[in-house]
Write a structure and sequence with these properties.
Radius of gyration of chain B: 29 Å
Distance between the termini of chain B: 49 Å
Largest sheet of chain B: 7 strands, mixed
Structural class of chain A: mainly alpha
CATH superfamily of chain A: Formate dehydrogenase/DMSO reductase domain
Radius of gyration of chain A: 24 Å
CATH class of the domain at 160-225 and 405-531 in chain B: Alpha Beta
Mean pLDDT of chain A: 86
Low-confidence stretches of chain B: 6-14, 42-51, 823-829
Shape of chain A: globular
Largest sheet of chain A: none
Number of strands of chain B: 39
Helix content of chain B: 25-40%
Order of helices and strands of chain A: HHHHHHHHHHHHHHHH
Strand content of chain B: 15-25%
Oligomer: heterodimer
CATH architecture of chain A: Up-down Bundle
Helix content of chain A: 55-70%
Number of helices of chain A: 16
Distance between the termini of chain A: 19 Å
Shape of chain B: globular
Mean pLDDT of chain B: 87
Largest interface: A-B, 75 and 92 residues
């Protein structure tokens, strides 16, 4: 890792506040895990934890009585369950995208947010994985989905997209977790070295896998990180493409469409960035990390949301066009029904939140406005939930044969299960904030001037007035 | 981008029919106002956060707390039940071998011949008896459901006195004491109230009682009485002769307020004949229906005239007048009375002229059928016209019923009530029935019953009447008791019990035998005594008896029937007495009391299958409603779900309104048999009781009724009728003329394009290749197949709330579409919504060869068999519901809850009641919650017949022969609209059907290659009527 100074001539800005040093960064990030938790953290944690309890209760009731405690019916066999699943998987997209794809493209600005985003990915995927697990009618046989050798010779159906889902999301979860953990090792070692009691030292020592910051460690580490980034990158595209196959390979009008894989990936990136934004803006102000997560980061992320939001809007429009152009009357009806039928309210919530609200970011003033960014990110989170609801429920509720058309009403348990999954997510996230460095310390240091091997060299043709000091060990992991 | 030409359905021609499913749908669809069309979207303007199941916070927290504790501890496997083998094998029972016994059940005066399937001594499934003329192997809806009535867990289990449990010996002693006290005065204080019977033994024992007590009076009452038909015959012929119509020979049928395909006597026989004559072609019959409310028969009509019930008589008189004037038919003395009769107001002239013309040109090949709701003179006039048209002996035979002494039921029970009120009745024996509930409201029967010092009630349940009677004893179900019965055509058969009475019930004839002091009071001996002719040697009789039990017929129908001449002057005189009366209108509403096709007179109220069965016309489950025509509803500002108060004089009822297209204006249709206040846990307070509005004098319809809309509303649960048809080719139909011009019109409307397969297609050309066809031309929508399927396949019932949620479990459903022939191009024509036609489409799993459900199941739980069945492996299913989502036909049903445990029998029974379990078919898995299920083509029957075929021919084995194997729906269908078989056999019936010009694959364009094909509906309108 080496320092590339921002080229100010083309408008690049510092990615961290100009006064930041190795020491200040280590301090800023590590103290969050070392100081006693602020009162706000405890309030948030206990709230989130009680919602986790609500989820466990809802799932317990669901297992006891059956899927009928939800509002699912015939024809709407999937409703909030799969909506939540796809929503969470989509949120889980930003992490890997920010970490792996931006890493490979050498987007240095990612270093302030990648840890955060990766953690969010893992927790979102955990929340996502709850739903396919619990939505099945006979949960005690859910393991039939896995290709376990058995005396009956009964295998899963490899033609089923739902099975592809199991593998796609499973792989994604595994690789994302590894990627996150590998990235954490140097920072965990920093925490270990700063630890003031033996328990902390032992726990962080265990997870830092004997990291000493030697050149050899760094070489292996960077190579591993690169390989994992390369592995993760196709997964960013594959996982949501496969999730979209659940719908695209069916015969249902409204589902059976070839635009779904790219459309789902764009939507997933869109929703993932929105969720990162929501969380980051809160953490940034609560933990006073404004030096590390600057307005530039916010602006860059808003640009991505504008781009992906417009892609999603294009996909919505294209679906209508294809429905008309295909001449398929069932397809055509589904889309007319989405916009004007009994679920029009859901459709228009989706359009407002996903297509209209990010358009505000064409204005530089608006996209650098922190409160507005927060509000829009919440809108997008809502809009993307409704997108999945619209795709799943409005397609199912009126398909081919009008005599079997119906309507879906959620029950209380539908709602508590969804809120409970948010509880799990925030519980895990708050624990992450408290116990793990929420910003990648080592990586962030690499974009400081100090990281430049020539930092402190006294050359006449010095960089545009940057401060010059003594050269230092750019790869030092010890706290200064 | 594809260059493939999009599929184009041959869209509706400019004047073609418009399909719609509900009235709101139609009016909005046709509306020129865009905002009205837009409001279609708000048909269910409910928000997402809408709790329709009303979980209370406290209840939810309780359950959630408990479930956290329990759910985490124990898995969710069902509890283990141990089964034990016989240690000593009982005689005559072969475990796992199905046996069938022939018997009969009474169906509104028809005795329906049955073969009942029995497993280890438990009757489980009812089929028709092919040797019995009434059924010819077919059954009706209530026949299919009767087996569940047998196992009703709420049946009375022992005698009781004033509600207190007693023993039979107590009852016997009490009855004997009363009889002894009556013996002194010849039984003058003793009355017997029975239901109408067609049993020779009943008639014999009644005579025997009269010999013992000369002054005893017998009364007959049925809420669904057919007295009008009897009285009409008495008027026309001077004796009771009931018409048996050979519909298969009738080319033109005019039904006057007669639901002969569903609720009238002999529906199975009628439907079978009607379907035989319904073959599209030059000999296809034509059905005209004149009725106030839409019936199953009306739904099969080629032309239907909605007419208030009391106008039907005037219509027939006008028609008779036209036949006399224009076609010179010979009505003898009646001609004068009808010659100048005017058609009721609003009846189009062609309904007189064209119908008369059609009837007259098919001399000897027509039938005029009059419903039992119509008064006797209508029947008498129809008899006269039928004779004059040469139908007697051709399409109609007249047969005398077993009991010729029955008088008009309204008069009969009226005189009993009067005597009870006057204190003349010291003892009343009620044999079956529930008069406190179903007698006309003006009699105050219940109150008067309280004045009778000794009343003895024999009935299946401790019902409304049992509350008022002194003694109640359980009545044996027809499948538990010996008896006999005479069918409409005169066939006599023995009612053979399948099982010992579950609750020691007794039959009507056993109680009569006690009254008559017969030497034996056992049903078996009583029936034998009736049929053993004097002097017949025991050996001869025993052989005849055994053969009768084996075959299900004791004496075949006499051929030819009775011929009798019309007593013209009497009929003419009665016709002349008809008063015109105040015209009905907004200030003089008519109410009609209709026999309910599910509840009948109320006796089936506790039958879960029937409660959950969607009504053939309205698709309402678990309730009845007051049917109001769209125009009347508009005038009175009524909308669906409004509670109405209907009153006449001091009596009134409250009932929910349902706007029914095709209902006569200013005439309100009410179905009897609902709103029981004490029917058992399922039937109590389901629907609305309309009997209080009936009177003994006007049992079936009356005018001068006041309607007030109350502020309340009431939610009904329907299985269909959500939204509109969207002009899609579902139930495809054409007229006979169009069919003759373009025989393959259906395949053109619903094309099956050829697409290249994605993978190597399976070769089904060897072995069996199962397929089904459903003929929409003959399907009457009677629902028999739905209940047959439910009873064969252990399909659970989910209850009203779950139906509202869309979780009904019927594997086979019947989709009903309204068709407005005149709507297109004339949006404002009110006749379009008022006079729609109906198209039915039974739909179960169509067993696609390229099944969308199979590809998406992640665990291979639904797969194809080598014979092409789309099979469900319940044990493998984990319940992702992906298959149901991907099923274009939406025929897959998911066990959202454990319907057997959490079902309708709660909270009284945490589990399926013991007796209901006895009904279960042991060859079909009972599905647990979380499992997907759907039609299997009755795979258990296929496998059973295959095993039999393999063992036959001295163990050499052979193929199943065509006709040996029937699915439950096919076997039950009285119209024989369903054909199933192996179409690798080119000679089989299924192969012939699959070559029929009218065949089409529903949604064939998706490429599913369904094994079930439909034969398109053909209507046969009279060109003269269309002009």
């Amino acid at each position: 890792m080496s320092f590339d100074a921002p080229i100010k001539a083309i408008g690049e800005k510092d990615l961290v506040a100009p006064k930041s040093t190795f020491k200040s960064i280590t301090e800023a990030v590590s103290r969050v895990t070392e100081n006693p938790a602020p009162k706000g953290w405890w309030i948030a944690f206990l709230t989130a934890f009680s919602f986790t309890g609500v989820l466990l209760g809802s799932i317990g009731y669901l297992f006891w009585r059956g899927v009928g405690v939800w509002g699912n019916n015939s024809p709407v066999g999937w409703a909030w369950d799969i909506t939540n699943f796809v929503w969470w998987v989509g949120i889980g997209h930003a992490g890997t995208l920010i970490s792996a794809v931006l890493f490979l493209f050498r987007q240095k600005w990612r270093t302030s947010i990648n840890r955060f985003a990766e953690a969010m990915t893992i927790f979102a995927v955990i929340c996502a994985l709850i739903f396919p697990g619990i939505h099945v009618g006979r949960v005690w046989h859910a393991y039939y989905m896995f290709p376990i050798p058995n005396q009956m010779g009964a295998w899963p159906n490899f033609k089923s997209p739902l099975l592809w889902d199991v593998f796609a999301v499973g792989t994604y979860f595994t690789v994302s977790s590894l990627f996150w953990f590998v990235g954490l090792i140097p920072d965990l070692a920093t925490l270990r070295d700063r630890a003031k009691n033996s328990l902390r030292r032992m726990v962080y020592g265990f997870f830092s896998l004997g990291w000493r910051g030697s050149n050899r460690h760094w070489q292996n580490y960077e190579r591993a990180y690169m390989i994992l980034a390369a592995l993760s990158t196709p997964l960013v595209l594959s996982v949501h493409s496969v999730v979209s196959f659940d719908f695209a390979t069916s015969v249902e009008p409204g589902w059976h469409t070839t635009i779904f894989p790219p459309y789902f990936v764009a939507g997933a990136v869109f929703s993932g960035f929105a969720m990162v934004m929501t969380l980051l803006l809160v953490a940034r102000s609560v933990f006073k990390l404004t030096d590390l997560v600057t307005i530039t980061h916010v602006e860059l992320m808003n640009k991505i949301m504008l781009a992906t939001g417009s892609l999603v809007g294009y996909a919505y429009a294209m679906e209508f066009f294809v429905a008309w152009y295909s001449g398929n009357e069932y397809e055509r009806y589904v889309f007319i029904n989405r916009a004007t039928g009994p679920y029009a309210w859901a459709y228009w919530i989706m359009i407002t939140c996903n297509v209209i609200s990010p358009q505000l970011f064409w204005s530089k003033r608006l996209r650098t406005n922190i409160p507005l960014s927060f509000v829009v990110s919440i809108f997008i989170n809502i809009g993307m939930w409704f997108e999945r609801f619209v795709i799943i429920v409005t397609s199912l509720h009126r398909d081919f044969i009008p005599s079997s058309w119906g309507y879906f009403h959620p029950t209380l348990v539908d709602i508590t299960t969804y809120l409970g999954s948010l509880g799990v997510f925030f519980t895990l996230f708050l624990l992450f904030l408290r116990w793990v460095p929420m910003i990648a310390i080592a990586e962030l240091k690499s974009i400081l001037p100090e990281a430049d091997p020539h930092f402190g060299d006294h050359h006449e043709e010095a960089h545009e007035g940057d401060s010059h000091g003594e050269p230092s060990l750019a790869t030092s992991a010890e706290g200064h | 981008m594809t260059h493939r030409k999009p599929y184009e359905f041959e869209g509706p021609a400019p004047n073609a029919a418009v399909y719609w499913t509900s009235l709101d749908d139609f009016t909005l669809q046709q509306s020129a106002d865009p905002s009205a069309r837009a409001s279609l979207a708000e048909e269910f303007p409910r928000e997402a956060l809408d709790f329709s199941d009303g979980v209370s916070r406290r209840g939810f927290m309780t359950l959630m707390g408990a479930s956290v504790a329990l759910g985490t501890l124990e898995g969710c496997r069902r509890p283990v039940d141990k089964i034990l083998p016989y240690t000593r094998m009982p005689e005559d029972i072969a475990v796992n071998v199905t046996s069938y016994y022939a018997t009969i059940i009474d169906r509104r005066g028809e005795s329906l011949g049955l073969l009942v399937e029995s497993h280890e001594g438990r009757p489980t499934k009812v089929e028709g008896n092919p040797d019995h003329g009434s059924s010819r192997g077919k059954t009706d809806l209530l026949g299919q459901a009767t087996v569940l009535d047998l196992y009703d867990p709420d049946r009375a289990r022992q005698p009781s006195m004033h509600g207190e449990d007693k023993r039979y010996s107590d009852f016997d002693a009490a009855l004997r004491t009363v009889l002894q006290s009556q013996a002194a005065n010849g039984g003058s204080g003793l009355r017997v109230l029975a239901q109408p019977s067609n049993s020779p033994t009943f008639v014999r024992l009644r005579r025997a009682v009269l010999r013992r007590f000369p002054h005893v009076r017998f009364h007959t009452w049925s809420s669904a009485s057919t007295s009008n038909a009897r009285e009409g015959a008495r008027l026309a012929f001077g004796q009771v002769l009931l018409p048996v119509i050979a519909f298969e020979r009738a080319r033109v049928i005019l039904s006057l307020d007669s639901d002969f395909l569903q609720t009238e006597t002999g529906a199975v026989r009628n439907t079978r004949g009607f379907a035989l004559g319904r073959r599209p072609g030059s000999e296809m019959n034509r059905l005209y229906v004149v009725e106030p409310s839409y019936s199953t028969t009306g739904a099969s009509a080629d032309h239907r005239l909605r007419l208030a019930a009391r106008e039907v008589e005037l219509y027939l008189q006008a028609l008779a007048g036209q036949l006399v004037r224009a076609h010179h038919i010979d009505l003898g003395e009646i001609a004068g009375a009808v010659r100048n009769a005017q058609a009721p107001q609003g009846v189009p002239a062609k309904w007189i002229e064209a119908v008369a013309n059609d009837l007259a040109t098919h001399h000897g090949g027509t039938a005029i059928v009059v419903g039992s709701r119509q008064p006797p003179p209508v029947h008498a006039l129809a008899h006269a016209i039928n004779q004059a048209l040469g139908n007697a002996g051709q399409t109609i035979q007249y047969v005398a019923p077993a009991d010729r002494d029955e008088i008009d039921h309204g008069t009969d029970i009226g005189s009993l009530a009067e005597a009870m009120g006057a204190g003349q009745v010291q003892a009343l024996v009620i044999l079956g029935g529930n008069p406190v509930y179903d007698s006309p409201g003006d009699l105050a029967f219940g109150e008067k019953l309280g004045h009778v010092p000794n009343s003895f009630l024999l009935s299946s349940h401790r019902d409304e009447t049992a509350e008022r009677a002194t003694w109640h004893i359980p009545r044996a179900h027809e499948l538990e008791a010996w008896g006999d019965g005479q069918a409409m055509d005169g066939t006599i058969a023995i009612q053979q019990p399948l099982i010992q009475p579950l609750f020691q019930g007794r039959s009507d004839i056993e109680i009569l035998a006690m009254l008559a002091d017969e030497p034996s009071v056992h049903g078996h001996d009583l029936v034998q005594a009736t049929h053993r002719d004097a002097g017949m040697p025991a050996v001869v009789f025993n052989r005849a008896w055994r053969r009768a039990l084996n075959r299900g017929v004791y004496r075949d129908a006499p051929s030819g029937g009775t011929v009798s001449s019309i007593q013209g002057s009497d009929v003419a005189q009665r016709i002349g007495q008809r008063q015109a009366g105040t015209p009905i209108g907004q200030n003089n509403l008519e109410v009609n009391f209709l026999v309910d096709n599910k509840m009948f007179d109320g006796r089936h109220a506790n039958n879960a299958w029937l409660q959950e069965l969607p009504d053939p016309i309205t698709k309402i489950t678990w309730d009845n409603a007051a049917y109001v025509s769209p125009a009347t509803a508009q005038a009175l500002a009524i909308s669906n779900g409004d509670m109405l108060r209907l009153s006449k004089g001091a009596r009134s009822i409250e009932i929910v309104a349902w706007i029914l297209p095709g209902q006569a204006d200013w005439s309100i249709g009410l179905t009897i048999g609902w709103g029981r206040s004490k029917a058992g846990r399922l039937g109590t307070r389901k629907g609305f009781d309309v009997n209080p509005l009936r009177t003994a004098a006007a049992l079936w319809f009356t005018d001068g009724v006041t309607l007030t809309k109350t502020a309340a509303t009431y939610a009904l649960s329907q299985t269909q009728d959500h939204f509109r048809m969207e002009g899609r080719p579902m139930a495809v139909e054409a007229t006979l003329a169009e069919f003759e011009e373009t025989p393959n019109f259906a395949a053109r409307r619903s094309p099956t394009p050829r697409t290249l397969p994605l993978w190597r297609e399976v070769d089904y050309s060897t072995g069996y290749r199962w397929g089904m066809t459903i003929d929409l031309a003959t399907c009457t929508g009677c629902n028999t197949c739905v209940v047959a399927c439910q009873s064969e396949n252990n399909i659970p019932v989910v209850g009203k709330e779950q139906v509202a949620r869309g979780r009904e479990m019927h594997w086979l459903r019947i989709d009903r579409y309204f068709v407005s022939p005149k709507a297109h191009g004339n949006d404002r024509d009110p006749e379009a919504t008022n006079d729609p036609m109906v198209a039915y489409q039974p739909l179960a799993c169509v067993h696609c060869e390229e099944a969308p459900c199979e590809n998406v199941c992640p665990v291979n739980a639904t797969v194809h068999s080598p014979e092409g069945l789309n099979e469900m492996a319940y044990n493998r299913c984990i319940g992702t519901r992906y298959c149901a989502n991907n099923c274009p036909y939406k025929v897959r049903r998911f066990n959202y809850l454990n319907w057997h445990n959490d079902g309708v029998y709660q909270p009284d029974d945490a589990d399926v009641p013991e007796t209901v379990r006895m009904q279960m078919n042991p060859n079909v898995t009972v599905r647990f919650r979380g499992v997907m299920e759907k039609c299997t083509y009755c795979v258990q029957r296929i496998q059973g017949r295959k095993i039999e075929a393999r063992r036959s021919d001295n163990g050499h084995g052979r193929h199943i022969r065509d006709g040996e194997l029937m699915t439950a729906c096919q076997q039950a269908c009285p119209a024989d609209a369903i054909v199933f078989g192996d179409f690798n056999d080119p000679a089989s019936r299924i192969s012939q059907m699959r070559r029929n010009d009218r065949r089409y694959a529903l949604l064939g364009e998706i490429g599913t290659q369904p094994r079930t094909l439909y034969l398109a509906k053909i209507r046969n309108p009279n060109p003269e009527m269309l002009g």
